[in-house]
Amino acid sequence: MEPIYGIDLGTTNSCIATIGEDGLPTVIKNLEGKNTTPSVVFYEDEDGVFVGEEAKYSMNGEPERSVAFIKREMSKPGYTRDIDGQIVTPVDASALILKKVFDDANQQLSEDGKDPIKKAVVTVPAYFGNMERELTKQAAQIAGIEILDLLNEPTAAALNYGTKGLEGKTFMIYDLGGGTFDVSIMRMKNGVLDTLSTDGDHQLGGIDWDISLLDYALLTCGLDITYNDIKDERDAGKMLNDVEQCKKRLSKNDKAMFKFVYKRKQYTCEVSRSLFEEITADLLNKTINIVNHAINISRDPSANIDEIILVGGSSYMPMVKEKLKKIFSCPIRLDNLEPDLAVAKGAALHASRLAGDKTTSVEIGNDMGSRSYGILCIDCNDKNKFFVSNIILRTDDLIHDSKHTFETAFDGQTSVNISIYENKMTEKYVNPDLCTLVRSGDINWGYGVPAHTTVSVVVSRSSDSTVKIWCECQGVKIDFELDYKGMYSDEEIEKKRKLLATKIV
Ligand code: AMP
Prior knowledge:
Elements: E1 5-8, E2 13-19, E3 25-27, E4 37-38, E5 41-43, E6 49-51, H1 53-61, E7 66-67, E8 81-83, E9 86-88, H2 90-111, E10 119-124, H3 130-142, E11 146-152, H4 153-161, E12 170-176, E13 181-189, E14 192-201, H5 206-220, H6 227-230, H7 234-252, E15 255-262, E16 265-272, H8 273-279, H9 281-296, E17 307-311, H10 318-327, E18 332-333, H11 342-354, E19 363-364, E20 372-378, E21 386-392, E22 400-407, E23 413-423, E24 429-430, E25 436-449, E26 454-461, E27 467-473, E28 476-482, H12 490-500
Parallel strand pairs: 1-10, 10-11, 12-17, 14-19, 17-18
Antiparallel strand pairs: 1-2, 2-3, 2-4, 5-6, 5-7, 8-9, 12-13, 13-14, 15-16, 20-21, 20-23, 21-24, 22-26, 23-25, 26-27, 27-28
The protein binds adenosine monophosphate.
Residues 10-13, 36, 177-178, 206-207, 244, 247-248, 251, 312-314, 316-317, 340 line the site of adenosine monophosphate (AMP).
């Protein structure tokens, strides 16, 4: 059977795995001998780029030449960084990270006398919309990877744990990484894995714990500044690295020292774990609010959570397990299961199933969409007010078909405007300010009709998340296909792929 990689393209760290000779998923170490590679790119000059450990190290001296946490920007259309006149997009930087882990793994295989692997399954956060998914695919193409499938991160994590006693259980994947938080409620029944709900915050992760701790240290050392005041200064990168190490020590020890240099002066501060937990309690509570929301919007909100699986490096913080233990009485899994490697291993299991081996992994059943779509309507009680009426919810099954009827608002209308809005809400009626307009068009039949004339709408979502909407009034039709083309044309991707082949140093 053809071997295929599973790649976790993480916000902070990335990881690559495949199925080993023992039939189990195994992580392939990078050329530095580490299981994970920092998702950091350092642009030395026009031709030279460092990715990973070395880039993270170089970031301290020249933060303006480094790109980190780029996955957080994937959903911001038009986001770019100008590095010495070189315009870098999230897709470009992600391509470099993917290429580093992919090339390192293939080099390891060649040293073992094995053929290189060409294909991969790459994981994405469950809340990524179609646009971010398409951009991730383009990054993989630029990296020269044949992308077989994109897999939701929580699903990947569950696949990794799948054979270890989840059958018949409803469980929660709590994934707190370096820059993002993801939660999914899932159920495994008869060897099929269903997603009951998913939620998250892509601006919440370990980095926020680091910044809180750093802010505390700056304050107690008598400096009247916060990280935000100094984030563009050279000291800031090193401070952030050092405070992260201090945070990690606090996962093992009750106390830790944090030493830092600011404007050539050395400062020292001792922090206890309980104090660290106190100053970051609001961040942890944010994750709990999201957990509660995920339970509320679950397809089976009354179902008990039988087990919680902790994923993501930040789950090593003891406060996470302790807090969840206080709220849920079920078992919580973390120990010895390497939460930072689980997603890549799950992706490798899925890849092997796609390659035809049905024995290594469970089947993925019902997944969900990540966005809701609705139509802009006029409020009948106040015709100056508008709302969006969702016709497909992100909590609906991914594969979905439904019919809806709307009415014209005014006497004598000869046409009606259909404006489709995308949103992340789970309610039927939504404030347009919380939505993004994605498509718009008119149905024009050319003669006046009374108010309350029927406008019919049919919506369909397919397994690749493409949404199609057909609208009809007075026999005149309009339809929309909500697919996303990504940001680069095929020619641009090919050009970038060739350019990249010469880049990593
Ligand atoms: P990930 O994105 O899953 O690789 O997680 C990276 C995040 O996990 C970073 O913010 C790390 O600082 C954090 N992390 C890793 N190990 C630990 C640890 N032992 N204690 C606390 N945080 C950790």
